[in-house]
Amino acid sequence: MIGERINRLREKKGYSITEMARLADVSKSYLSQIERGLQSNPSLLFLKKIAIPLDTSVEYLLMDGKSQKQHETKLDEEWKALIQQAMENGVKKEDFRDYLNYIQFQSWLKEQNKT
User: Which CATH architecture has domain 2-62?
Assistant: First the structure.
């Protein structure tokens, strides 16, 4: 379960196993074993090192399915509050769309510069 979560977050970030191991300063083979479920009880130090480049917390990596759903619901509530605050301050839907398009364009540019 922890390995699956690490794998999903790593792939979402676009990191290879090698790159992730380098960024977290952990063994590539051990990281691979964790992700494949061959090792299922990583140390807190390992999880702390992994959490940093994944932009997450050790707590999130350790959550069970129910806790993860509660965390995601909380995140949804935070988004709702943020959107409500933006609306109260005069931000329009078009502004959000423009900002999203800008962020997507910046991500695309970053990808183009990698190749």
Answer: Orthogonal Bundle (1.10)
Domain positions in the chain: 2-62, 65-114
- DSSP H stretches of helix in the chain: 2-13, 17-24, 28-35, 44-51, 58-62, 65-88, 93-114
pTM of the model: 0.57
Amino acid at 57: S
Pair of tokens at residue 18: 């090698």
> For residue 3, what are its two tokens?
């390995």
- Spatial distance between the Cα atoms of 79 and 95, rounded to a whole number of angstroms: 16
Q: How far is CA 66 from CA 77, 78, 95, 102, in A?
A: 17, 19, 35, 35
The pLDDT tens digits for 32-46 are 999 999 998 999 999
pLDDT single digits (tens) 48-76: 999 999 999 898 898 865 555 565 666 67
State phi, psi for 16 to the nearest 5 degrees: -80, 165
